[in-house]
Design goal:
The complex is a heterodimer of chains A (about 100) and B (about 130). Chain A has about 100 residues and is an all-alpha fold. Chain A contains four helices and no strands. In chain B, helix 1 packs antiparallel against helix 2. In chain B, about 35% of the residues are buried. Classes of the chains: A mainly alpha (about 100), B mainly alpha (about 130).
């Protein structure tokens, strides 16, 4: 099982480094939203791999919180950017 | 290492590999919609594979239902967030229009001729509408 742990954490770590590259480079805000979502999913996968390999259930509530946090974060940032778009489309007298 | 452990290990490694493919796709793909396509792989299939492996490994523990709950939440929430992000990306012109093959939300070309249009065009229109 140690070999499985090493292989899984190596794959997850390489994926997380690549996702962080996009998070740093990302030309637009939405690229960063997408990569933050993918990074949180990678973290959730890492916690689940830890729980599975070492048969340790103490981190499972954290797993649930991380899975829900990814959804709430990406949806709220997307709604915020959409609100900025609506304001930018109004004429100046509408904005008052 | 029993047979169940082998199955769980295969599931865990496959799910982790999908996370790596998400990183590769995020770095190499050109625009937001392509990157969302790459980032969705671990969000659904990767998480489900890892949760399956973890459930197989942790069978008999009292808190396994939480792993099933995480998988169900991912299936419910991934389409909603992807829809919101892609809608904002389309409206804020973060989409590479030259890479789109079909743009059904964009400025329409000549509208398709329906059966009602063809009938309305027949006799009583002006002469300038002939040949259409």
């Amino acid at each position: 099982m140690t070999v499985v742990a090493v292989v899984c954490f190596a794959l997850l770590g390489a994926g997380a480094v690549l996702i962080l590259t996009r998070l740093a480079l990302g030309p637009s805000l939405l690229d960063r939203v997408v990569s933050t979502d993918a990074l949180l999913v990678t973290i959730a996968c890492g916690i689940a791999v830890y729980c599975a390999v070492y048969r340790d259930i103490s981190l499972e509530p954290v797993l649930l919180v991380v899975a829900l946090l990814a959804f709430v974060g990406s949806v709220s940032v997307a709604r915020y950017i959409g609100g900025m778009l609506v304001k930018a489309e109004q004429t100046p007298e509408e904005r008052s | 290492m029993s047979a169940a452990d082998v199955v769980a290990s295969v599931c865990l490694v496959a799910g982790s590999f999908l996370c790596l493919t998400a990183g590769l796709g995020l770095v190499r793909f050109p625009d937001v919609l392509n990157r969302m396509h790459a980032a969705t792989k671990p969000q659904v299939l990767g998480v489900l594979l890892v949760m399956t492996g973890a459930v197989i490994r942790l069978t008999g523990q009292p808190i396994v239902w939480m792993l099933v709950l995480v998988g169900v939440f991912q299936l419910l929430t991934a389409p909603v967030s992807a829809h919101l992000v892609s809608r904002v990306a389309y409206r804020r012109r973060h989409v590479r229009r030259d890479l789109l093959l079909v743009d059904e939300l964009g400025v329409p070309g000549p509208p398709p001729v329906t059966e009602a249009d063809a009938r309305a065009d027949e006799p009583a229109e002006g002469p300038e509408r002939t040949g259409g």
